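Narrative of activities, Objective 1.

The group set out to show that a structural description can be obtained from nothing but a protein's sequence at a throughput compatible with the screening campaign. Below is one input-output pair from the validation batch, recorded exactly as produced.
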Amino acid sequence: MTTPQPTTAPRTTAAPDSTAPAAAAVPAPPRWAVRAAHAAAVTALPAGLWRLGLTLGWQGGYTDAGYHAVGFTGRDAVWPLTLSVLTEALALLTLGLVRPWGTVPPRWVPLLGGRPVNPRRVVLAASLGAAGLTVLWTPFLAWWTVSHPDMTPRGHLLVGFLYLPAVAWGPLLAAVTVSYHRRHRAAAA
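Output recorded for this entry:
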């Protein structure tokens, strides 16, 4: 009596990924850059959570009249919700400067997936973003010197502290961008 031999499918090796050498040639980011990228990714989170709370009916430091004047309810809640999601998504893009997907996006990404990105374009976009964020958020350092009659004193203090981390977003992004540029320049050499 013969025992049937198990049939196995022949092993096939997948074609080597043509993008793997591009990603492998880039040196690993320094530890400080990884930490700075993670810090940058969460700088927008406190203000975003505050705005989400406002859309859910929490006055978040506004007086009754101030809260109703700003109008964070009903259809007017779409803008703060959208702003919170977009802001955090942009902040999370900073992680791409220290992750492999910042060199070769995953295949599922439309138009860019699986192909190496142009590091110069990434550096340009990130540099412009860092400059814009610095210009946008630096005035919040003076938050407490400006009167806000539509807010309670405690709310004025709270909002100042919730937006304060966003001031660091631009400089952190700039530092991580410099690291990304140096690593890709070293890989090209």
